Amino acid sequence: MPRPTLPARLEWEPPRYNAKTGQLTHNGNWVITDRGKRRRTGCGKEDLAGAQAKLADYLAEQHQEAEPEPNLAASQILVADVVAYYAKEAVVDVARPKEFLARQERLLAWWGSRKLSAVNGFTCKAYARARGSQSAARRELEDFRAAIRLYAENGLLRENVVVVLPSKHRSRLTYFDRGQMATLLWYCWRAREVQKGVVTDKRHRRHLVPFILTALYTGSRSAKIWNASFTVQEDGPWVDLEHGVYHRLGTKEVEQSNKRAGTVRIPGRLLAHMRRWRRGSLKDGRRVQREWLVEYRGQPADPRKALSKAMDHVFGEGHPYVRHTFRHTCASWLLWAGEDLNEVAGYMSMTVDVLISTYGHDHPEANMAVGKAFTEGRAGHRRGRSRRERGAESAVA
Questions:
Q1: Cα–Cα dist 369/365, whole Å
Q2: Is residue 388 left, alpha or beta, with left meaning phi > 0 and alpha meaning psi from -120 to 50?
Q3: 234, 220 contact by CB (below 8 A)
């Protein structure tokens, strides 16, 4: 009986020395072995993770062009086939393809050489442990689950394979108060860059001010702010200063069901700031209009790193704040003011149910009816009988 063909795998090739001189001729290397062929990874003994990533890339190359066979058992299918198939089919419909493909690469690096029959609760937990972050592992395993489902729906898999997700931890809600916001804005406006120990005139944090104010006033997600233009865009958000409207989707963008981004009216105070930002600044005696809402050196700028450093400076290292905190702050402040839940939900581009479940406790009328039931003495009595009827029953007794 012929021996079964082994799948592509990593093997350690030890260093080689000249037999006469003892001089090193080849460094040790992890090698990909596949059906008699060997491919060096360039990774040393301690870089197993790098070698695994090379193996995942190799498997993806081998299988992405091959036409998958229909109606196979899980034991006949490589995970690399499933993930590569999903990446090819789904990447055209995702909002952030770079992030999507990065998640598929991380899945391939760990699962790529395994068969689909190896997917179970134990291996999913092992993946989450190796990943280090429960939330990141959950997001990537959600992709993996979708990949397997697509493979089965298209008639390529005949068995049910279950991906077990890590528990979803409820994120701790944090928000800024008005004093914290004022301090952060003042720092970003006044801060000067220090070069070689010398304070310069360069205001290197001022580009954060439009981001912070827009995030606070509109509760928009980060990418919808720093990618926003002051002119009409087909594939990105834009601000209509003439009519005072913030279009958080481009004219031809498709709204994602889990990342809603509706058009909103810009609050008056923020609109005045935006019109001033649009006018730009004087350069060489002439005024140069600003093209982007958050602009650094003439280009739209993701403020993640600069904002993180600004927060560390203002609040100290170890603070709980991130960019998404501005969205929490916007929702919390609006509910503190007692605004209508439907209005706030529409403004934040979320459902009323999500708004109530996440922020409802901050509304001044939250649980008020329950409190009145105790205060007015209604709690403890069955509903439907009047006080007079209850009194008559007591008299007969």
A1: 8
A2: alpha
A3: no
Burial 265-286, CB ≥16 within 10 A → b, else e: ebeeebbebbeebbeeeeeeee
In a domain, 383, yes or no: no
Tens of pLDDT, residues 53-98: 787 777 766 655 556 788 899 999 999 889 988 988 887 777 677 7
**Residue 213 has which token pair?**
């104010």
Whether 268 is covered by a domain: the verdict is yes
Q: What sign results for the dihedral spanned by CA atoms 234, 235, 241, 244?
A: positive
- Amino acid identity at 185: L
In a domain, 369, yes or no: no
By the 10 Å C-beta count (0-12 exposed, 13-18 middle, 19+ buried), 302 is classed as middle
User: Do residue 198 and residue 71 come from a single domain?
Assistant: no
Tell me the mean pLDDT in the region 120-136: 92
For tokens 């080849």, the residue is: 26
Q: Within 13 A of 149's CA, how many CA atoms are on the CB side?
A: 9
pLDDT tier at 392, thresholds 50, 70, 90 = low
Gyration radius (Cα) of the chain, Å = 29
CA atoms within 13 A on the CB side of 5: 8
Residue 375 maps to a domain: no
**Domain range holding 326?**
178-330+343-348
User: Is residue 319 a contact partner of residue 255, using CB atoms and an 8 Å limit?
Assistant: no
Number of domains observed in the structure of the chain: 2
